[in-house]
Specification:
- The chain is of the alpha+beta class.
- Helices cover 41% and strands 20% of the residues.
- The protein has helices spanning 4-9, 11-20, 27-60, 64-98, 136-143, 148-155, 164-183, 197-202, 229-233, 290-307, 354-359, 384-394, 409-412, and strands at residues 118-123, 146-147, 161-162, 187-189, 194-195, 223-224, 239-241, 247-256, 275-285, 312-316, 328-336, 341-350, 361-363, 372-373, 375-383, 402-403, 416-417.
- The chain has an eight-stranded mixed beta sheet. It has a three-stranded mixed beta sheet with strand order 7-13-14. Strands 2-3 form a two-stranded antiparallel ribbon.
- Strand 13 and strand 14 (372-373) form a beta hairpin.
Length: 420
């Protein structure tokens, strides 16, 4: 959430930057509420000043208490009414601000959609084939290791069964990713998969994107996590971090998304599922160093793709293509020969203090110093299902088998994936 005082102080600049990213702030309503808030503050301070003055008079002359009593009652009643009105205004402003996205960093290019994104760097070469490369779902089904038909019978669309070597491949990838990231200084967490409304609000999934979430019914409301970002970021909610920063976590979890706005997109295969696995990277950083932390986090995520020998590129998202809570985002896009296109496999973002303000996560700059809001960052390190997609398509062979990159063989115990 944006700082209300900063928004009020720099209103025109905030509105202009929000327009760059397609954000919408109800300007008329916001200005009216801010004007009412200012007027109420003036009235409240005046009433409180009068009450303090009358109290001083009563202290000096107790006989005045009987005479001034009715006036004190009126003042007390007026102050309570003003405080209640001010509280209502603050709540309405808070609700309004919860729907306002983060401001893009000055280094983010202005653009309306993905066409405004900028390719920062590319790694590796596209594999060449002497045959027409197949898409991952064709490969998996031909191997007898990927079954969408039975998954639809059990759960409906956008679910799949992986079996045999393909199921083992996901486990192997998770182990490789976690081992790799913990060796680079991340602490592993195994988080809860159900979280509260407060946790979802803290990272910005709610209230704006509630239609994309799965939640429980009944007396106790809980949400299935759309990403481990939610529980891991909220691990330090309502806390003051006292030690050195950055603090770095990695976490494996299943992720659950309704994909409410994706009708007709990626209806076949593993690219856009209601349930998928992901290894998440989360950092808590000092504000002055958070942009460099984003660069390092992005390199950490990309290092998995390099380890697996997968051709990919790093893309800086423009203002119109960033996520709601992001201040700056890099997408990692891996080359998929079967599709003949780059597809997102990781998104690495710096949120500034946007999430920290919602979740009340602070740090102490030095001993005895006043706590400040920390900067939060996160990125996929990587989306496991999409990594499976990339491996199947990039290491496919004409006979239908799939090679296994050397770094993965000790985890999988196989040098190739054959029909099973």
């Amino acid at each position: 959430m944006l700082d209300l005082k900063d928004v009020a102080k720099n209103f025109d600049a905030v509105v202009a930057r929000l327009k760059d990213r397609g954000g919408a702030l109800d300007l008329g309503r916001f200005q009216a509420l801010m004007a009412q808030r200012k007027a109420l503050y003036v009235e409240l301070e005046a009433a409180q000043g009068t009450r303090n003055q009358v109290n001083e008079e009563i202290k000096l002359d107790t006989a005045k208490a009987r005479v001034l009593g009715p006036r004190m009652k009126e003042l007390g009643k007026a102050i309570k009414e003003q405080e209640a009105a001010l509280k209502g205004l603050e709540e309405e402003l808070g609700t309004l601000m919860m729907m306002v996205p983060n401001l893009p960093h000055a280094s983010v290019p202005t653009g309306a959609d993905e066409h405004g994104n900028q390719v920062v760097r590319t790694w590796g070469e596209r594999p060449s084939f002497l045959f027409t490369p197949r898409q991952h779902f064709e490969i998996g089904e031909k191997l007898g290791l990927l079954d969408f038909e039975r998954a639809a019978k059990v759960s409906g669309t956008r679910f799949g069964f992986s079996r045999g070597a393909l199921a083992k491949l996901e486990r192997a990838l998770v182990a490789l990713m976690i081992d790799h990231h913990t060796a680079r200084g991340y602490t592993e967490l195994l988080p809860p998969y159900l979280v509260t409304r407060a946790a979802m609000t803290g990272t910005g999934q709610l209230p704006k994107f509630e239609e994309d979430a799965f939640k429980t019914a009944g007396e106790r409301e809980l949400f299935l996590i759309p990403t481990a970002e939610v529980p891991v970021t909220n691990y330090h909610a309502d806390e003051i971090l006292e030690g050195p920063l950055p603090v770095k976590y990695c976490a494996f979890s299943p992720c659950f998304r309704s994909e409410a706005g994706s009708a007709g997109k990626d209806t076949r295969g593993l690219v856009r599922m209601h349930q998928f696995h992901k290894v998440e990277l989360v950092r808590f950083a000092r504000p002055e160093g958070s942009l460099e932390e984003l660069e390092e986090l992005t390199r950490d995520a990309a290092s998995i793709l390099e380890l697996l020998g997968l051709h990919h590129r790093v893309v800086l998202l423009c203002t119109g293509d960033m996520g709601f809570a992001s201040q700056k985002t890099y997408d990692l896009e891996v080359w998929l020969p079967g599709q003949g296109a780059f597809r997102e496999i990781s998104s690495c973002s710096n949120f500034g203090d946007f999430q920290a303000r919602r979740a009340k996560i602070r740090y102490r700059p030095g001993p005895g110093e006043r706590p400040q809001l920390v900067h939060t960052l996160n990125g996929s390190g990587l989306a496991v299902g999409r990594t499976v997609v990339a491996l199947l398509e990039n290491y496919q062979r004409e006979d239908g088998t799939v090679g296994v990159p050397p770094a993965l063989r000790p985890y999988l115990g196989l040098s190739e994936i054959v029909p099973g």
